[in-house]
Amino acid sequence: MTESMLRGAEPTTIRDALEHDDPLPGTFGFGGELDDHLVRDVLGRVPLFVDERVDTNAPHPTWAFEPTALEKPRLFPPGAVAPVDEPSTGQQLRWTIPDPEPESDQDVALEALEDAILTAVEAIRRDDRSVAVAFSGGVDSALIAELLDAPLYVVGFPDSHDVAAARTAANAMDRDLTVVDLEPADLERAVPEVARAIGRTNAMDLQIALPLYLVGERVAGDGFDALAVGQGADELFGGYEKVVRLDHRVDAETVRGAVREQIRSLPDQLPRDVLAVEATGLEPVAPLLHDAVVETALCLPDSLLADDDERKRGLRRIAARHLPDDVARRDKKAAQYGSLVARELDRLARQAGYKRRIDDHVTKYVESLLEDSTRRSP
């Protein structure tokens, strides 16, 4: 067993999880090869790809952590195990996301959640890495920044919501803030690099991944080893408007069901975010996706999830113990909108002749930049 073959956990931890059918064995996620089998954690926090090629006897790898290493990469299912020599046909689901009864006592649930978050933070501290925080001024990144006591970096165009919100939050927290100001040329340069790294060209995925990549570039350039992010908070704690509205974007008929639906979407989203950060040379760190936090979030009572008045209520109650009230209460925009990356990428596409009347015009623009970059490569 070499370090490059397994990421995120010690072999003994995963063997115990297999033996005891434990989907949340106290890790930040794991994936890779163990005992001649591929394994991937139940939330897919470590990207793991298998090759869809029919000829598995060809002299090429059958699996990889990055999609660029394979001819026809496909995500290995979360919670699955498969023989290394049968990565596609031999898959067996070994872990599923737990569905526990909610805790009836709000105070007990909140204490458990705070303990879990502190456990995750302490695990990051023990690794002795130099960590910076991708900071938007919202409650998720603010709580992480406060508990880690790590430097704050925000990325966005000069007139963006995220830059303004991060400045006011950092001031309220009495913290210094590094602002990574973007120009349209930054997007043109980064789009092919990010599309190649994440193995995706669709507009939404690029709009989400670009801010992570661009802030990561600056953090890596400043000499840090890891980037702490707030990924998972909206899914785990009921941060999306659609989980309250129960509109066409969700299938569930209750807020609790809609929250669980969002949690199940994480395995498809997280590889994009992880790969975008890793492409800068940094290790992504997501404290709110530690198994202990996930386990307690699944047990939160409905009253600590979301309603018309407040979303992520349980997380905000914990944040209020550590942050100024206005920071703990504030909402935020999704990164692609708060940073204005989505707006500027749309503008660049239209300037390049990809008008909005063209179906999926931004994706076509992204694909054109990737093709141009590939032709120019030696």
TrEMBL record:
Q: Where is this region: Disordered?
A: 1-22
Q: Does the keyword ATP-binding apply?
A: yes
Q: Name one GO biological process term.
A: asparagine biosynthetic process
| Protein name as it appears in the record | Asparagine synthetase B
* Entry GO MF terms: asparagine synthase (glutamine-hydrolyzing) activity; ATP binding
Could you tell me which species this protein originates from? Natrinema halophilum
GO cellular component labels: cytosol
Which keywords accompany this UniProt record? ATP-binding, Nucleotide-binding
Which InterPro entries does the annotation name? Asn_synthase (IPR001962), Asn_Synthetase (IPR050795), Rossmann-like_a/b/a_fold (IPR014729)
Residue span, Asparagine synthetase domain: 113-252, 264-358
